[in-house]
Amino acid sequence: MKTQKSLLVILPHPDDESFPMGGTLAKYAFNHTHVTLVCATRGEAGIPGKSPVEAGKIREAELRRAAAELGVSDLRFLGYHDGTLAQVNAAELIGRLVDLLREIRPDVVLTFGPDGISGHPDHVTLSERITQAFDRVALPAARLYYLAPSEATLQGCGVAPAQEVAGGPVASIDITDYRLRKWHAMQAHASQNPPFQGNPAEQIQHLACHEYFTLARPCGNFADTEDLFAPLSPRQIFPPQPLRELLRATRNPNSFSSE
Ligand SMILES: [Zn+2]
User: Fold this and answer.
1) How far is the CA of 83 from the centre of ligand 1 (A)?
2) How far is the CA of 16 from the centre of ligand 1 (A)?
3) Model confidence, pTM
């Protein structure tokens, strides 16, 4: 019987894990959670002037170093070519994701939302395919979270926080104590010219202390949370008007004065 919590993170490119959500991965990996990181490509298109094969080798090595910094020991590649996920046969991709979900049986799945954060077609496509696979497998009690725009994504991907986060309840993960891990993982992606290079003790002060996710599955009116694995509780409905007046009256005895 499974005792350890399981977090499955599925992303298209090396560096998608560290910049916007590295603190969250480290926080769970170092706190009794089995984290599986699945990278759909090797980021072959991500180093100008390098051949795809060369770039893929460099970026795979960078991701392996980043994963080690984040405490993620279970790292897998799906082997698709960077920039082509939208052209991959949908049934094939969904089938591979279904197999992964059935093998790992995660409690929580993390990926990009339908916006892909940056709008990159690989991000948008993978989000859609994972959601389809998640719905098909229907693991009991499993959750699917999408990365939400925030200061952390602004720092990592240049996408500003939304005024209001669209979609389900928000999980805000406090990564204050894991910023150094995140910083080292970010710097491991040297080919991507990571931000905040320099003295780690100084540079981590610039990293946002929270990373945000929205609950995509199950759908429902759940309360916001600070833990991806915490039991879902119904959102508190503010007391209706007559009850509010009664509560106010009971707090203020003078309001019951008889005329
Ligand atoms: Zn990416």
Assistant:
1) 9
2) 5
3) 0.88
Report the C-alpha gap between 117 and 124 in whole angstroms.
8
pLDDT at 237: 67
Distance 59 CA to ligand 1 centre (A): 12
> Any idea what the Cα angle at residue 133 is, between residues 132 and 138, rounded to 5°?
100
- How many CA atoms lie less than 13 Å away from 240 in the CB half-sphere? 1
C-alpha to C-alpha distance for 67 and 61, rounded to whole angstroms: 10
The full set of domains in the chain, from first to last, is: 5-256 (3.40.50.10320)
The predicted pLDDT at position 40 comes to 98
Residues of the chain falling short of pLDDT 50: 163, 253-259
Tokens for 73? Answer: 């020991």
Helices (H), the chain: 18-29, 52-69, 90-104, 121-137, 151-157, 179-188, 200-203, 241-251
